[in-house]
Specification:
Layout: H1 3-9, E1 14-16, H2 20-28, E2 33-37, E3 54-55, H3 64-74, H4 81-101, E4 107-108, E5 111-112, E6 114-115, E7 125-126, H5 133-147, E8 151-155, E9 159-165, E10 168-174, E11 177-180, E12 184-186, E13 197-198, H6 207-214, E14 219-220, E15 225-232, E16 239-240, H7 246-250, E17 254-257, H8 270-282, E18 287-290, H9 299-302, H10 304-312, E19 322-331, E20 334-336, E21 348-350, E22 355-356, H11 369-386, H12 410-417, H13 424-434, H14 442-456, E23 479-480
Helix pairs in contact: 2-5, 2-11, 3-4, 4-11, 6-14, 12-13, 13-14
Length: 493
């Protein structure tokens, strides 16, 4: 990449990440902008893997108020009611916008076909092809981004750091060079790849979040890591696990063990079902999702993508129960933002899974993530457009190389000590192992933030379950900055 191109981009808002939140922001900005993505556009975005769809109260028997009530119930007392109401009220308009943009949501008998998913009281999940919703939405937005001359996409380009002076953003370090800017949106996704088994791409390691924290940004609710109950067991103990969508259980599939016996209610919230499956596996059982007798069409017609993933491991879901186990799926925590997407650092915004808006609370309701990603990208873009950006003239820019991203030990440590079940000893062990490298290792910093937040939450709530504090207490939020982390040499031995 030439210096001339980087110079031409100076002053433009920089969007870190090319998932749904980042693309939504780029399309809603009224000014030229830059998107940084380490992979070809949309390739390694978790948004592209979303199966279930996008939640919106558009059915005749539904309402934004009912959608809000379900979201609040799933959030286990920590969702922010004002944020929930704002998102669920905006959801029908989001779906209309996506339809206008060309997303081919499925129809049935002339109306939009709505799926039911766990913990929803109504059918309200718009989908594409049964289980290809994320990919279809992303491809629609990618085409619009590619057609917009004012959007510059830097593929194969990573964020290496943020320059902040006097509490205000002055530019971003990238693997291609330095870009002076007074506005940056972190939309780099979650932290799934920091676990040994996850449904997210291997690039989703929380690097954008880590750079923002080193620049002074505050994080919230880092302890809330959601495990999807039904990830396909592929035989590999590491790497990305194909998802078996919530909609499969909504269509009538049941959870059984090797004896064919049911052991839990499949349509409870994700944290409850994940713990039930985890406990059953620890007791020595194998767990399966039996979709051989779904309501309506046969399995392969309703869920072609999942059918293909099953066939790849020698399972025919119309003849065989599907082997499953929980896997890390979604991070409710992230950069603490206000209703406009602003972080605690002036000039720095966050959207999508990288942000903590207060919508999900302690446990995300199924199919609210694509909705939140689209809206938070839009709202951040609208705020960026209204802010007068001023950069301080820089006489020189210090060189900066990429921070270490080696995290060979971290996925095993995170799965063992910050997984579905946690306790003080394990969380302290995770801190001991990661804090010494938090200055230079992105994964280590994120792991330390998760461990410290989980230690601060001395209760069990939603996706955070501590065996040494199994009861729920009065609701409270956890927030941290880099300076709040313990000094490694002062940790108890």
């Amino acid at each position: 990449m030439t210096k001339a191109l980087l110079s031409a981009l100076a002053g433009q808002p920089v969007i870190v990440g090319a998932g749904l939140a980042g693309l939504s922001a780029a399309l809603h900005l009224r000014q030229p902008c830059v998107i940084l993505t380490p992979s070809p556009l949309g390739l390694d975005a978790a948004s592209s893997l979303a199966q279930g769809g996008i939640a919106a109260a558009i059915g005749a028997d539904d309402s934004p108020e009912l959608h809000a009530a379900d979201t609040l119930a799933a959030g286990a007392g920590l969702s922010v009611p004002e944020v929930v109401r704002r998102v669920t009220t905006a959801a029908p308009q989001v779906t209309q916008t996506l339809l206008d943009w060309g997303v081919p949501f499925a129809h049935k008998n002339g109306t939009l076909d709505l799926h039911l998913e766990a913990a929803h009281s109504r059918k309200r999940i718009l989908h594409v092809g049964g289980d290809g919703s994320g990919a279809a939405i992303m491809q629609t937005l990618i085409r619009r981004v590619q057609a917009r001359e004012s959007i510059t996409v830097l593929e194969g380009t990573c964020l290496n750091g943020l320059m902040v002076q006097d509490g205000r953003l002055q530019g971003v370090y990238t693997s291609a060079g330095f870009v002076p800017t007074a506005a940056c949106l972190v939309a780099s996704g979650g932290i799934g790849a920091l676990y040994s088994e996850a449904t997210s791409p291997g690039t989703v390691q929380g690097a954008g979040l880590a750079h923002a924290v080193r620049a002074g940004a505050r994080v919230a609710d880092m302890e809330f890591t959601q495990f999807h109950p039904t990830a396909l067991k592929t035989g590999s103990m590491t790497g990305r696990r194909p998802l078996v969508s919530e909609a499969v259980r909504g269509a009538g599939a049941i959870l059984v063990d090797e004896r064919g016996e049911r052991f839990t209610d499949e349509l409870q919230s994700r944290d409850v079902v994940a713990r039930a499956i985890f406990a059953h596996i620890r007791e020595g059982h194998d767990v399966f999702l039996d979709g051989r007798h779904l309501r309506g069409a046969v399995f392969s017609q309703q869920f072609p993508g999942i059918t293909a993933a099953c066939h790849a491991i020698g399972v025919d879901p119309e003849r065989d129960p599907i082997p499953i186990s929980p896997a890390m799926h979604y991070h409710m925590g992230g950069l603490d933002v206000n209703e406009r997407g602003r972080t605690s650092v002036s000039g720095l915004w966050a959207a999508g899974e990288a942000a903590c808006t207060g919508l999900h609370g302690a446990n995300r309701l199924a199919s609210n993530s694509l909705l939140e990603a689209f809206l938070t990208g839009q709202w951040a873009a609208e705020d960026i457009d209204h802010v007068k950006h001023q950069t301080v003239p820089l006489r020189s820019v210090p060189t900066r190389s990429a921070l270490s991203v080696s995290f060979d030990r971290i996925p095993k440590l995170m799965s063992e000590y910050a997984g579905i079940l946690r306790d003080k000893n394990g969380l302290q062990a995770l801190l001991h192992a990661t804090l010494p490298d938090a200055e230079t290792n992105d994964g280590a910093l994120v792991a330390a933030l998760v461990a410290q937040s989980a230690l601060m939450r001395r209760e069990s709530r939603g996706s955070h379950y501590r065996t040494d504090y199994p009861e729920i207490t009065d609701p409270y939020r956890t927030t941290l900055t880099f300076s709040d982390l313990p000094v490694p040499e002062r940790l108890p031995s």
